[in-house]
Amino acid sequence: MHEDGQRQLLKYEDGVYRLSKSDVTFSQAALLQKIEATPTDFSNNVVTRPLTEEWLFNTVAFIGGPSEIKYWAELQTVFHEMGIEMPIVLPRLRFTYVTPKIEKLLASYDLDLADMIANGTEAARQRFVRAQASEEVLVDMQQMLDQQHAFYERLQAQLNDSEDQRKLLKKNHQIQTHQYEYLQSRYLKNIERENEISMRHFHLLSQTLYPMGGLQERIWNPLQLLNEFGMEMYTSSTFPPLRYSFDQYVIKT
After folding, report:
1. Which tens digits make up the pLDDT trace of 24-48?
2. What is the full DSSP assignment across the chain?
3. What is the pTM of this model?
4. From which residue to which does the signal peptide run (predicted)?
């Protein structure tokens, strides 16, 4: 309900209708009178909006994304209580566009398309970087870190009687551990720099198949494809009509 220049939640408490951001209350009769006089002061919340929509414009099916489907599933009891028929809830068709260049990169790095769409490319990128590094160097670095932990535990056992010494040891251990981890991190970062072209490839794969950590369809705009492939992109002669499916469609451009 709109009151005092702001939208407020209307709640029923202790026999009256109360606004969430003020002390204003209404009896049922007063509220019904206000609805009749100024209906534009009232609006639906996130739960009642679907109810009102289906009451006014009953639809055969609601088609939505994964989050919307999950949300609508929670409304089934509410629809039943209000005596409003709930529409069939269906997930929307899911698409991923794959260009010849992306196909070539996937083959070049022996990557699985379905895995890249579902989980992204970061794990594959890290595997690639470690594969270019010296396994002997990585093992030695890990041994250095393990030895540091063992050294810390031995000294800690010998300094049980001194709180100040234990604090000093702990601080020193944190510094040493950070340095070992920094050494390994910088070593791998240098490997990435030495393989800059491959890093660009993985970045392109990520931006195409797993943009911003999610599905392409949730990030990309159709205008991107129109700009790249022209106005014929969405004609039936370019891509034949698709059948409804719960699977992810891969469209090769």
Report:
1. 888 889 989 988 999 888 888 888 8
2. -EETTEE--EEEETTEEEETTSS-EE-HHHHHHHHHH-GGG----TTHHHHHHHHHS--SEEEE-HHHHHHHHTTHHHHHHHT-PPPEEEEPPEEEEE-HHHHHHHHHTT--HHHHHHH-SHHHHHHHHHHHS-HHHHHHHHHHHHHHHHHHHHHHHHTTT-HHHHHHHHHHHHHHHHHHHHHHHHHHHHHHHHTHHHHHHHHHHHHHHSGGGS-HHHH--HHHHHHHH-GGGGSTTTSPPPPP-SSEEEEE-
3. 0.67
4. none
